[in-house]
Amino acid sequence: MSGPAVFASPRDLIGQEGRQFGPTDWLPIEQDRIDGFADVTGDHQWIHVDTERAKQGPFGKTIAHGYLTLSLANYFLPQLVEVRGFAHAVNVGADRLRFLAPVPVGSRIRGVGELVKFEEVKGAVQSIVRITIEIEGSDRPACVVDTISRYFPE
Fold first, then answer.
1. What is the CA radius of gyration of the chain?
2. Residues 75, 76, 81: CA angle, nearest 5 degrees
3. Element spanning 54, H or E
4. CB 113 within 8 A of CB 77
């Protein structure tokens, strides 16, 4: 990837609805990342962390947690879009979250984005960027989520 789409200010997002961003570079999903996520969240379900038992499971190996995959939307977002010229910004939330395919250990994933909506909200500028997390070699994405960011003027 050549870098994120850069906007000098949040207002530069006006009229950009439908614009596509990315894709990012591929990110390998290895067992140590899955185990680390399990440790932080307390979700040690065997399908994620027991490599021997998972060989007999429905996917033949461990898979990443859905919420691990979702959390990587925040890893991909700044690689897709960079907005400048504001005092501070916050993640407001997410809408339309769907887990569409499992991410087996050893897979590589990447993010692509689309500016879905731009609006002024409570003295700030809010954008909704849909992040689709693709799995290399799969015709179905792992996850699709609309991320909501709010930028406050300087």
1. 17
2. 120
3. helix 51-54
4. yes
Rounded to whole angstroms, the Cα distance separating 132 from 39 reads 26
What is the structure's pLDDT at 126? Answer: 95
Find tokens 């990443």 and name the residue.
Answer: 64
* Distance (Å) of CA 58 to CA 48, 61, 75, 141, 150: 12, 8, 28, 18, 40
Rounded CA-CA distance 121/26 in Å is: 34
Which residues does the chain have with pLDDT short of 50?
A: none
pTM check: above 0.90: yes
Instruction: Check if the beta carbon of residue 110 is closer than 8 Å to that of residue 22.
Output: yes
What confidence score (pLDDT) does residue 1 get? 65
Residue with token string 């504001």: 86
Closest CA to 69 of 132, 3, 4: 132
